[in-house]
């Protein structure tokens, strides 16, 4: 009997404890939701609702007011006439959407690797060969381009590479070279190189496939210059979290600078590099200010600086095709979502997270 009574009491106590734990958890969850609700409401209002409303608009002919339901016509236009079209004189040609996608891809491929590699080399050199006070000074110097007004910095770059009064052409003339058109040159660099060695671009291939134009290369130079400071700052913060004992032990085993970088710094800095890669890809595909100011909002010369965000902007504000601009925005969202997912699936396996 005593054993039965003891078991019943223990069951009651355990059930009472479970009820208390459940009550405490539900109370904590309610408190947590109260704290998180303002942020969730802001996300819902300024992120998810515009996205859903943009999807709705993309099915309509919409010129600032709703006019006519089009169904999937805007999306059909994206993947037909705006992607490729047939010209009776020149054959198959690349449409404006395809050209803007190519410009965006050229921009991303031409800026992300260079910016990340340069940032890593600068951060590694600062971290290993400068004291804390000097590091702080150089952090500020490298971070200044990132916090400088982009419009003001771009105007300075436009003056430097102006074909008539720019100091870049003045320097070329000084050393006996021919001046360049720079920001007004629409010719792709591959076509320009072939011309320089006495060859020509194949007539049966669209000229847009010949790489970025010289005007787009100037925008790339500006993008690398303005983004290095942010990357260096984040990488220095990541390097400061690497235990110094690992470097000391490796040096005692005879490791040189390359070994330290290859087998200690890069693996332990991989989470930071992975984060910067994702941020850089998203930022390059969403870049707008540089393209708008450099080209005056026109995407010129000859559309060679017409990025996808600028093309969306022109369809919205210039052509008054709000429905089609919304469909293009959904396309950009899908592209970024897929690129981020692919990066996580392919590259995250190689990221070394400390446990």
What does this protein look like?
The chain is mainly α and 355 residues long. It has two domains: 2-41; 78-350, MetI-like fold (Orthogonal Bundle), CATH 1.10.3720. Helices cover 70% and strands 4% of the residues. It has helices at residues 2-57, 73-78, 96-129, 132-147, 150-160, 167-174, 189-196, 214-239, 244-252, 257-285, 289-295, 308-318, 322-347; strands at 60-62, 66-69, 84-87, 91-94. It is globular, with a radius of gyration of 28 Å. Keywords: Cell membrane, Membrane, Transmembrane, Transmembrane helix, Transport. The chain crosses the membrane at residues 32-59, 105-127, 139-161, 213-239, 260-285, 322-342. Its main location: membrane. It is a multi-pass membrane protein. It holds the Pfam family BPD_transp_1.
What is this structure, in a nutshell?
The protein has 355 residues and is mainly α.
How does the overall form come out from the CA principal axes?
A: globular
- Helical run tally: 13
- Write out the strand line-up for the largest beta sheet, numbering strands in chain order: 1-2
- Going by CATH, the architecture of the largest domain would be Orthogonal Bundle
Euclidean distance between termini CA atoms: 52 Å
Q: Which fold name corresponds to the CATH topology of the largest domain?
A: MetI-like fold
| CATH H-tier superfamily of the largest domain | MetI-like
Order of helical and strand elements: HEEHEEHHHHHHHHHHH
Helix content: 55-70%
- The SS-based structural class is mainly alpha
Total discrete domains: 2
Percent of sequence in beta strands: under 5%
CATH class category of the largest domain: Mainly Alpha
Largest sheet: 2 strands, antiparallel
Number of beta-strand segments? 4
Mean pLDDT, rounded to whole units? 86
What is the alpha-carbon Rg in Å?
28 Å
Q: Low-confidence stretches at least 5 residues in length (pLDDT < 50)?
A: none
């Amino acid at each position: 009997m005593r054993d039965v009574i003891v078991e019943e009491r223990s069951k009651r106590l355990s059930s009472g404890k479970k009820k208390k734990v459940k009550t405490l958890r539900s109370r904590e969850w309610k408190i947590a939701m109260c704290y998180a609700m303002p942020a969730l409401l802001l996300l819902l209002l300024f992120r998810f609702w515009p996205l859903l409303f943009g999807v709705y608009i993309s099915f309509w002919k919409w010129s600032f007011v709703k006019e006519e339901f089009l169904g999937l016509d805007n999306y059909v236009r994206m993947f037909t006439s705006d992607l490729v079209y047939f010209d009776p004189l020149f054959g198959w040609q690349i449409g404006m959407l395809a050209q803007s996608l190519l410009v965006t891809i050229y921009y991303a491929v031409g800026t992300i690797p260079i910016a990340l590699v340069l940032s890593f080399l600068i951060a590694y050199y600062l971290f290993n060969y400068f004291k804390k006070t000097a590091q702080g000074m150089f952090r500020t110097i490298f971070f200044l381009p990132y916090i400088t007004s982009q419009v003001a910095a771009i105007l300075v770059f436009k003056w430097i590479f102006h074909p008539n009064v720019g100091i870049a052409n003045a320097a070329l003339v000084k050393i006996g070279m021919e001046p360049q058109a720079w920001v007004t040159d629409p010719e792709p660099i591959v076509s320009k190189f072939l011309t320089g060695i006495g060859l020509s671009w194949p007539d049966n291939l669209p000229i847009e496939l010949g790489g970025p134009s010289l005007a787009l290369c100037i925008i790339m130079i500006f993008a690398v210059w303005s983004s290095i400071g942010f990357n260096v700052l984040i990488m220095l913060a990541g390097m400061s979290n690497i235990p110094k004992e690992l470097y000391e032990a490796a040096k005692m085993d005879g490791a040189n600078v390359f070994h330290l970088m290859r087998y200690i710094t890069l693996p332990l800095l991989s989470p930071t590099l992975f984060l910067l890669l994702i941020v850089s890809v998203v930022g390059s595909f969403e870049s707008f200010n540089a393209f708008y100011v450099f080209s005056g909002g026109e995407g010129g010369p000859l559309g060679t600086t017409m990025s996808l965000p600028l093309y969306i902007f022109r369809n919205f504000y210039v052509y008054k095709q709000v429905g089609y601009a919304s469909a293009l925005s959904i396309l950009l969202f899908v592209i970024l979502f897929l690129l981020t997912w692919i990066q996580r699936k392919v590259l995250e396996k190689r990221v070394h997270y400390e446990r």
